[in-house]
Amino acid sequence: MNTTAEVLTGDTGAMSAADLSGRTDLGATVGDITSKNPRMVCRAVDVYYGEKQAIKSVSLDIGNNEVIAMIGPSGCGKSTFLRCLNRMNDTIPAARVTGSIKLDGREILDKGIDVVPLRAQVGMVFQKPNPFPKSIYENVAYGPRIHGITNSKAELDALVETSLTKAGLWKEVKDRLGEPGTGLSGGQQQRLCIARTIAVSPEVILMDEPCSALDPIATAVIEELIDELRENYAIAIVTHSMQQAARVSQRTAYFHLGDLVEVGETDQIFTNPQHKLTEDYITGRFG
Amino acid sequence: MSIEPTKGHTVKAYDSELAQLRGLVLEMGERVVEQVTDAVAAVVEGDPDPAHEVVHRERKIDYFELDVDESIFNIIARRQPAAVDLRLVLALSKVVGNLERAGDKAEDIAECALRIQGRDGCPDSAIYHHVSRLGKQACCMMERAMDALGRTDVEQALDVFADDRSLADEVAAAMRHLMSFVVEDPSLLSQVIDLLFAVKALERIGNHAGNIAEQVIFVAKGRDVRYQSRENVIAALRKRDG
After folding, report:
1. B81 lies within 8 A of chain A by CB
2. Based on C-alpha coordinates, what's the Rg of chain A?
3. What is the separation of C-alpha A120 from the centre of its chain, rounded to a whole number of angstroms?
């Protein structure tokens, strides 16, 4: 419970990006960029595509056991920032990332980092479900097998079952594990992709508009799953649906033209955003 | 009076729905002030006509509340308002409740007027002075609160808080003075009791204006200042903005 003075003045002592970087220009992030229990710590991250700067000195923590939603109009840089978190931007030749991104205190932007285990630790679920053209079982077993996570067929079977169970799909597919993953419905395919991500024991799960290709019922199932997964993982989700951001996240970050304009608790962002741009976007007056 | 958003929504129909809602609430405010004015006139001037009209129009105030509630219900269901829009819609929902209760109080005053007129009048017109004075004060507060709402004007809302304090002092003085009439002439007891009811009703109308001012602050600042010391709220917000 805030004190009367805090309620009236809004002064909660939160740390902003401006506090950390000394920036005082209009681009300084409003709100507290830090997490009480950070899994990833990003500071002054810039991303360039050739000459064009897509992300401008973004600082943000991704906290354990919480969902952070990244919202903003198309082209604002939210997906670009998400892709920095497991170095997916490495696959784009003209992309250049500077600044610091630490996972459990370890710098992931170092050139010496092997991105293959990094992408197991920081898994990604994409907009369109993309199961491998293999069986349901193999879709989940593939990652643990190549990462050498299990030692026996029995262990692998158990891991497949656990991963499918955590993804809320086990009961629906346990009797047809040999059937192609591509034969599942869209929502089931997305949950299969989540099971595939979980199977390699990630610490962080990145989701890039995971429900945009799904109907409302499948979307609700994924959102319920996200809420359950939060108990064990740090989750960052990019979504164009503000209502989805409001429903699934505990913190929300608003991006605009490459700037992280505002970050705060989701309750606050959707009821009393402090930056005019955030308010205009949230209320449908902009974008 | 109008509450102007900083910029229109991309979906223009949403703007129209919010504008219609705001218009309804502001119109309801004007009608309530009219009710209070006429009810007080009925008491002070001893004229039964405005009292009957107030009683007759009370139902229309209730219908305003139903219309506003339906509009809010539909906007929440269809638009899922957020941020300042959400605060405005929730605030208007509370404002309309306060207006409806203020309307009820105006009807109470009108009924007091009719009861007083049914008895032998008091030869001393000074007995009605307080009702006249407090009526003007309560109407002024309600108009200021509605104007503050219409313009999302925090300063004006804070002024209403200050008025609410002085209204309480005036009410206490009025009650003491009215009781002195009974001491001098016990046959005036019935009239004085009705006048005390009218005074207390006007105090409540002023309180409702204060509640509406709280909602203006909620819309403008996103801060819920209900159940907090008004003095602290005034000091904190004036200091912050000053």
Report:
1. yes
2. 19
3. 14
For B151, the enclosing helix (H) or strand (E) is: helix B129-151
How many Å apart are CA B127 and CA B123, to the nearest integer?
Answer: 9
For B219, the 3-state DSSP assignment is: helix
Sheet strands side by side (includes A67-71)? A122-125, A204-208, A234-238, A67-71, A251-256, A259-265
What are the E-state strand segments in chain B? Answer: none
Q: Does A176 touch chain B (CB under 8 A)?
A: no
**Would you call A206 helix, strand, or coil by DSSP?**
strand
Q: How do strand A204-208 and strand A122-125 relate by DSSP bridges? A: parallel
Among B85, B86, B236, select the one facing A8 at the smallest CB separation: B236
Phi, psi for residue A232 in degrees, rounded to 5: -115, -10
Q: Which of A244, A211, A190 lies closest to A67, judged by CA? A: A244
Q: Over the stretch A38-92, which tens digit does the pLDDT of each residue have?
A: 999 999 999 999 999 999 999 999 999 999 999 999 999 999 999 999 999 988 9
Residue type (1 letter), B40: V
Contact B83 A282 (CB under 8 A): yes
Interface contact A286-B10, CB threshold 8 A = yes
Percentage helix, strand, coil for chain A under 3-state DSSP, each rounded to 5 = 40, 25, 40
Per-residue burial over A129-168, b = 16 or more CB atoms within 10 Å of its CB, e = otherwise: bebeeebbbbbbbebbeeeebbeeeeebeebbbebbebbb
Largest Cα–Cα distance of chain A, in whole Å? 62
B224 touches chain A (CB under 8 A): yes
Query: Nearest to residue B4, comparing CAs of B218, B149, B210, B141?
Result: B149
Structure tokens at A26: 């209009």
| Closest CB from B14, B229, B233 relative to A284 | B14
Q: Which residue, B29, B28, B17, B27, is CA-closest to B76?
A: B17
Give just the sign of the alpha carbon dihedral A176, A182, A188, A194.
Answer: positive
pTM, 2 dp: 0.86
ipTM of the complex: 0.82
For tokens 């505002």, name the residue: A262
Count residue pairs from A and B with Cβ separation < 8 A: 62
